Amino acid sequence: MDAPRHPAPDAGPARGPRPPLVPIERLDAVPDAALAALAAAAARHGFDSEALAEAERLLPAMAEAMRGPAIRAALAARTEPRMALARLFAYDDAVPAERVQALLGAETTGALAAAGLLEPAPAPRGAGWRARGRLMPFEGLLVWSDRPDAGDAAVMGPGATTQGAARLLPARIAGDVLDVGCGAGSFALLAARRGARRATGVDIAPRAVALARFNARLNRVTAEFAAGDLLAPVAGRAFDLIVAQPPYVVEPEGLGGVTYLHGGARGDAVLRRLLAGLGRALAPGGRALVVADLWLPRGATLHETLRAHLGDPALDLVTLAAPGLSAPIQAAAYASLDDPSLGERYAWAVARYLEHFAALDAQPVHAALVVRRRAHAAPEALTVTVPVAGFAGRDGRDVDQLLAAMDLLGAPDATLLRAALRASRHATWVEERRAPDPAAEARYSVRFERGALARDRELSGSSLVLAATLDAAPSVAAAVERWAAEVGASPAEVRDEVLAFARDGLASGLLVPAS
Ligand SMILES: C[S@@+](CC[C@H](N)C(=O)[O-])C[C@H]1O[C@@H](n2cnc3c(N)ncnc32)[C@H](O)[C@@H]1O
């Protein structure tokens, strides 16, 4: 036989053992009563997002393999029930058997052990239990998933990006909702909990569907789940809301792909196919929220790149774009999922990622895409990129307001004159003087909170008064009247000035439509 013309890609040092997957075969056998008792115990003992946030604050923003041992050590010294449950369910720690039994009850402990969800493990003083996978509090829900370092077949539960996306969703969700690439079901369960008429999750991995169904039962919410490629399992249906966090990590050659993590050599293979299909799957007036990290090629603009993937020219696209994590931080984080022992293979994988990132010649962007199919025909679709520092502190109201602002921006004068505008609730209006002399010339500016969907800017004194006039008026038309009186002109003379200022204010985030 001929020798291969190219050597096989370097597959790197052998991988050490990875944590076990959740055994999905016996999930159906866990009685409803045990699941209800588990959820009740978590609520009673305060094992919720707050407890987890408190534990996370012990060592934030560091790869899991590094901070895990430190968090476990810190929590082992804590006596509160919620921290014992955090150790057991979120931090892979063995907790003494009698403590677990006291917290969950003997029957629930037994049922979880019978299903293989708890396994015996030596604890510091005798026998203990350790969870298989993780049970994570998420927006008032509990979500059982695999550990992120459990290998190719791991099913992802709610992580930091899932949390960020959840905040950008409306507080009340109506209509038909689809969670694409649902993993352990986080977005579909959340939509059902927030009021969706029908919540559906789809995932390429049948294991994900099994875990998502289990989680629906655990949280007593009604949601449907199906296995298949992207939108194929729901072909022919149209949704009011679609949510997705596709796998977006680049896959260096030889590393071996992980379904929940990798999106091909550029990381965008699944994202591109998803965006291309959204037009058909959104109902009129429907909206999609897609969160992803991207590597934007040098010289390319984000909104042209994304618009090209979207295909359908009739869809509005508003992208919130924050700087992504640097290449070394991403390399360390993803390599540590490949080799959680941080051994020889970890070092090899870091080098593979770094080489791969360098070859991309691109910059990292963390993005939330809001795609909307208008309910009524619009003259031109919107394509807007809003630079933000991050998504912390943003919520669904900000996204609604942003879309409403974009609508008004493109509307005819008569529509804008009827609208009422308000100053952004994220702004601080600043007056500065170089001397403590009230007669000294002042500089005016508006500064936004970190992460606001707007950028700081200088203002003239008269712009500040005009912004205040618009903020106080019941409509832009009324502001035209008031401004005319203020400057001693006729409304017809100042109308264009006020409209131009209003549009500029909407475009820059200074002004928002009154809700
Ligand atoms: C990054 S995880 C997101 C999980 C969950 N939605 C969340 O945000 O926590 C990506 C998910 O997409 C799924 N996936 C990957 N390729 C897919 C495809 N072609 N069709 C459907 N799902 C896919 C993976 O199995 C994984 O569950």
Mean residue pLDDT: 91
Cofactors, ions and other ligands in the entry: S-adenosylmethionine
Secondary structure tally, helices: 18
Total number of strands: 18
Strand residues, percent: 15-25%
CATH class of the largest domain: Alpha Beta
Helix content: 25-40%
Uncertain residue segments:
none
Q: Give the terminus-to-terminus CA distance.
A: 73 Å
The quaternary structure here is single chain
The largest beta-sheet arranges its strands as 8-7-6-9-10-12-11-13
CATH superfamily of the largest domain: Vaccinia Virus protein VP39
How would you describe the shape? elongated
**Biggest pleated-sheet summary:** 8 strands, mixed
Description of the molecule:
By secondary structure, this protein is of the alpha/beta class. The chain is 40% helix and 21% strand. It has helices at 32-44, 49-56, 64-76, 81-89, 97-104, 106-114, 160-168, 186-193, 206-219, 269-281, 302-310, 327-338, 344-360, 396-409, 413-418, 461-472, 476-487, 491-508, and strands at 95-96, 118-123, 126-131, 134-138, 141-145, 176-180, 198-203, 224-227, 239-244, 282-297, 315-323, 362-373, 383-387, 421-423, 427-433, 442-448, 457-459, 511-513. It has an eight-stranded mixed beta sheet with strand order 8-7-6-9-10-12-11-13, with helices on both faces. A hairpin with an 8-residue loop joins strand 16 and strand 17 (457-459). The structure holds S-adenosylmethionine. S-adenosylmethionine binds next to helix 8 and strand 7. Residues 167-307 form the Methyltransferase small domain. InterPro entries: Euk-Arch_PrmC-MTase (IPR052190), SAM-dependent_MTases_sf (IPR029063), Small_mtfrase_dom (IPR007848).
